[in-house]
C-alpha cells in the first residue's frame, strides 16, 4: 500500500523532529509507528473479510430459503395435480405405437413366379394402464389383412400385421393385436407375474420359434428373482390355438427355464424351452411351410405332432463405442413323424453391432437360419424369412434420421430346406418407420 510510507512520513513530519535529536532513536520511533500501522491494517483487512463472509452467508441463506419455498410449492402443485388426475382416472397411462412404410421386393431365382415389387403399411397404437396392487392392462390395435369368411372367423394372420397398398384406396382394416392383463401380486419379493388374454410374447426366443409379431392367446405364469447380477426365471404357458364345438381343442403347453446374468459391461441369457402342441396337426389354420397330406378328405400336417425342445444363448458386450450382440438358437421337434420326419430341426446363429436409440445411431445385423419343414409350427415363425421350410441369410442395416424416425434395409437370400413347391428367392425390404 503506497499510502503507508506516505502516512509514516506525514506522521513523523507532524510530530516534529526535535533539532539535534538522536537519529537512531528517531528511526526506532518510525519503526514502531510502521508496526502499529501494519497491525491496524491487518485488523482492517480482517474486519473487511468478516463483513464479506457475513454478506455471503446471508445470500446463501436467502437462496436456500427460496429453493425450499419452490420445492414446497412444487410438491403441493404435484400433489394437487396428482389428486385431480386420480379423480378423473388419468394416472398410470402410457401410450405407444408406430407407423411403418415398407417397400417389399421378391425376386425368384428360377422365374417360377413373376418378380414382385410392392408397398406395405403397418400401423399400431397401444395404451396400457397400471391400476395399483401390481395390476396392469394393455390394449393394442394394429393393421392386418382381414380374413372374413362364411364361418365366424374374422381376423388377421398371426405373424404379419402388414397391409398392402393395393386396393384402390380402400380403408385399411384395424384389428385387435393385444389385449391382456398382468398381475404381480404383493407376495414375497414379487417373484411371480400372472398374465392372461392375447398377450405380448413372454418367452425368450428368436424368430425360428416365434415371429416378433405373434401375440399368443391364453395364460402364462412367470417366476423370476434377482440375486445380485444373476436372475433365474421360469415361465409356464397355456395357449389356446383352436376351439371347435364338434371336436377336442388344439392347444399348446410351454415351459421355459433360464437365467440372465448382467454385469456393467456385458450380459448373458441362457434358456431351455419345451413347447408341447396338442392336436395341432389335425386342427391347424395356416400350414406356414409345414408339409401336409390329405387324410379322409381333410388336410393334416405330416409332422403328426410338435414337441419342440429349444436351447437359446444370447450375449451382449456394451464396453466399446458400439455394443455387440451375438446369439445361437437350436430347436428340434421330438414329435416329428410321417414322410418328412427327418425335417425336424431349426437353428439360427447371428449378431448385431450398434443400436438404434437416438439420432445418428446405426446398427448392422446378420443371421443365418435354417427352419426345416416340420421343425416348428410354421404359422408362428419368421414370416419375412418365409416361415418354415426355409434356410438362408438375413442382413440388415438401420439408421436413426431423428430419435424416433428410422430408415432401414433388409436383404433375405433364402432357399427351401425341402424342394417341394417353394422356390429360392431373394427379398429386399426398405423400411421407413416412426415410433413413439
Ligand atoms: Ca412378421
Ligand atoms: Ca404334442
Shape: elongated
Mean pLDDT value: 91
For the largest sheet, list the strands in their spatial order: 1-2-3-5-6-7-8-9-10-13-14-15-16-17-18-19
Summarize the helix and strand pattern as letters: HHEEEEEEEEEEEEEEEEEEE
Tell how many strands the DSSP assignment holds.
Answer: 19
Distance between the termini: 68 Å
**What structural class results from the helix and strand content?**
alpha+beta
- Bound chemical compounds: calcium ion
Q: Which parts are unreliable, with pLDDT below 50 for 5 consecutive residues or more? A: none
Q: What does this entry look like structurally?
A:
By secondary structure, the protein is an alpha+beta fold. The chain is built from two helices and 19 strands. It has helices at residues 3-15, 23-87; strands at 93-108, 116-132, 135-143, 163-164, 174-183, 192-198, 217-224, 230-244, 247-262, 266-278, 292-295, 298-301, 306-317, 324-333, 345-354, 362-371, 390-402, 405-415, 425-435. Strand 13 and strand 14 (324-333) form a beta hairpin. Helix 1 crosses helix 2. The radius of gyration is 37 Å and the shape is elongated. The two termini are 68 Å apart. Residues 159-160, 211, 213, 383-384 line the site of one calcium ion (CA).
